[in-house]
Amino acid sequence: MKSLLLVLFSTLTLNSVCSSTAVKEQDVVGNGQDSQTSNLKPQASNQQDTLTIAMTGDIMMGTTFPSNQLPPNEGRDIFMDTKEITLRANLAVGNLEGTLCDGGQTKKKPGPNCYAFRTPTSFGPRLTEAGYDFLSMANNHSNDFGAFGMESTEKTLDALGIKYAGVKGRVRSAIVERDGVKYGVCAFGHNSYTLNHNDLNTVKSILDDLRPKCDILVVSFHGGAEGRTHTHLPKGHEFFLGEDRGDLRTFTHFCIDNGADVVYGHGPHVVRCVEVYKGHFIAYSLGNFCTPYGMNLAGVTGYAPVVEIKITSDGKFVEGQIHSFIQQKGKGPRRDATNSVAREIRNLTLSDIQNSAITISETGRITLK
After folding, report:
1. Neighbouring-strand partners of residue 281
2. What angle separates helix 248-257 from helix 200-210, to the nearest 10 degrees?
3. Degrees, nearest 5: CA angle 296-299-303
4. Residues 277, 295: contact at Cβ < 8 Å?
5. Within its chain, how far is the Cα of 38 from the centroid?
6. How far apart are the first and last CA of the chain?
7. Which residue among 84, 195, 312, 364 sits deepest, i.e. has the most Cβ atoms within 10 Å of its Cβ?
8. Hey, how many other C-beta atoms are within 10 angstroms of the C-beta on 49?
């Protein structure tokens, strides 16, 4: 059914997608109309007893800045190994690490830790072809090309029927309606322009607003220190490059305690542990998922799981599967026949989650104890 969106998109044009426009009034925080709603897919008359959610980490399909680093065939092959999973899910979510824009100037200052990503708008349909319903913009690259790039990204995703949220003063939350089920989704990050996960008052305000409007509530977050030395989930706040990247155990548990059903994270560029807390699923980092250029993909930084979970109609975890993929430069995520990615998440969970409510097999199957 997700493929029906491609027919709709084919009637649209993205030629003017990078034109500068004002923030849409209905999306501004505080005016009482801060949730997007999608109704593009055909709706079933009855809700299902169990629902499937597929989650992935960072997506940056290629960049034209500072030079062209783009996969061949306009990226049509980058999701070839993974899209079967994201297409069959009732809800597929990820993190859009960068902008969808055909021009503009970066607002970032050059430096060893400075990266700016500008993916052509022509690559946007790859996200629909892969079945994505929602993408977080609450990360440290959505503002790489300022308001110009952010508006272009929003207009591109709007044309594709993909929902988004997470930037302060713009879209606080989204509602995706699929097969008669309303999924409320919101996103938080650690940057000054994102809705910040350290601001628990704002987090609670958004959750309180969204919970009555949806059947299932999903929270996305960008947080944690970066790199292969930060695979373990610490207790307390994490600081990296002078930024408070969050107390993620406290934040995720707070979200569940305040109505969230599923929480998924990204940001460290490596995978981290998973948890079932009070019957609800949390993924602390899903790593780099589809970043064929511009990022280090050696070793664990190339691990690119798709975590597929089944939940009840009231949001409780039933079972799951960690599908193992490893990124190849210029190609994207490719199947990992050795299941090394699932084993990495399994080992991190055994190490970092005390009295875990789940068991993860060597092949990535997640079951309740």
Report:
1. 262, 276
2. 30
3. 85
4. no
5. 17
6. 34
7. 195
8. 8
